[in-house]
């Protein structure tokens, strides 16, 4: 990927919009499996994993330009995977500050739009005992406006330059000092050896956040969810170097926790967004919906501690 390539992807998305109706948006692209070899050095593994994440981001540009909700979701997944990977290697391959700021900017550009998509398409759709159609229509309109407002970011030189700079940093081993890596450097180790402390660190972080959690604290629950996601991503990145059945069981357990915490987070986000609708002509319905959200959140938090403690007892996958 380079600047010219990214610009072509954006141009292709624009051409698709001109030639097709909005209902024919390009299909959303999920992450491809990372392919690692057992004799690969950790530096090569980092390049493979990073470029895999970037490919997912880039592949969803046409769908995002077409204002396709699932393409936006998958672009955000690719971005989260990339940031989790870079965080995992922060000690051995620190990202330059300007690239870190660029990723923060892109994440911020995408985040609010996705929140309104989820409210309109998922959270409100799951409510019972209330006609949510007026609220869903209002939330969907806000989401459509945000999708439209986000388009300049995709067309901007900043986005193209960010992709080009990340690509150059990964391909050019931008983390290297002058000359070869020291023999004891993490990135000089074989990937099968170097992954071990990274997988352990991810599980330790998750365990600590679970131990400190008040399960009724929504922001703290969200931090646990992020830690679970990072531990899962780590196990998925190194899947080719891990025992398949153990890796799959570990990922499945973490995914189930993520889903539960993710639903609770969607409810917490809905509690913040509904007052916006309440103040824009939907006072009665939005107030009722806020009450439903509070009750659902309380009910679904019940028994969460047992599930969290079970996850805390998991051990990272070993070879």
UniProtKB/TrEMBL annotation:
Q: Which Pfam families match?
A: CHAD
InterPro entries xrefs? CHAD_dom, CHAD_dom_sf
| The CHAD domain, residue ranges | 39-319
- Entry-linked SMART domains: CHAD
Top-rank taxon, per record = Bacteria
UniProt xrefs under PANTHER family? CHAD DOMAIN-CONTAINING PROTEIN, SLR1444 PROTEIN
What is the protein name for this chain?
Answer: CHAD domain-containing protein
What organism does the record attribute this protein to? Massilia consociata
